Amino acid sequence: MRTHAPIILFCYNRPGHLRQTVESLRMNTLAAESELFVYSDGPKNTADRQRVDEVRTYLAGVTGFRSVHVREAETNKGLANSVIEGVSFVLSQFPKVIVLEDDMLSTKDFLSFMNQALDTYASRDDIFSVTGYTPPIAVPGHYPHDVYLAPRASSWGWGTWADKWAEADWQVSDFVALKTDAAQRDAFNKGGNDLWPMLAKQQQGVIDSWAIRWTYSQFRTGAYGLYPVHSKIKNIGTDGTGTNFTFKSGEYGDELSEGAVTMPPDLRPDDGMIHAFGRYYRLPLLLKLKNKVKYGI
């Protein structure tokens, strides 16, 4: 009998968003059979303490899962450190995980989809991660499957396996070589031409992102992320309240789709899907110019 992947949920100081996320997750058909690990980050300052306390008061009463484990940080670790440490710890105990942040609404079959994907593609060396989210790309009319592969990892309602996570190079040890190799940078940017600028900013200390380093680790091994054609995750943190989302957008996850999904074990990358995916993440010209002038990217 296969066991369900444990769920890891990262939260900080948004009790309202967290409540919606947990309530949505609790309605999943596999929630009662799944263990939930919650990582509550500590306050950055005195002003944050009240909302962090509200989060923890709410978490103390969460039920509806096989078990609930809450980890409360005394000081603020930041999202990147929290994710790397938390996912690494849980994956030292389990072979696979499902990961969310505190601003994700899910369909009732999200956990079923994720567990199905984690089971189906566990042995595929060229698939490093799976996700229940898909951006609103223009799916080519010829594409026949319910899932697709893209050269990018998603940070919105995602999952991975212990052996794949162990391949991550959080220091990006070959960054200098990448910086001088235009062909490799172009190849990395197939998942969106925002990837190289994000990685460069990460290495310059401008941003602190686990996700761009995880995507780069995936790229270095020639691996892909698995996405559904129709999203099972909606982000509600694009209202400007999130740590890493500083703009509002009505574009993210408008479509949520329940229903059975067929997952071919021998699924292969599709050039049309990858092209459509990359186009969605194409940087606006003004931002490209800003990156060049301000950061030398």
TrEMBL record:
Q: Which GO terms describe its molecular function?
A: transferase activity
Location of the Glycosyltransferase 2-like domain: 7-120
Question: Which SUPFAM superfamilies does the UniProt entry name for this protein?
Answer: Nucleotide-diphospho-sugar transferases
Tell me if Transferase is a UniProt keyword of this record.
yes
Ordered alphabetically, the record's keywords are:
Transferase
Could you list the residue ranges that cross the membrane?
Answer: none
- This chain belongs to the protein called Putative glycosyltransferase
Q: Which species expresses this protein natively?
A: Dyadobacter fermentans (strain ATCC 700827 / DSM 18053 / CIP 107007 / KCTC 52180 / NS114)
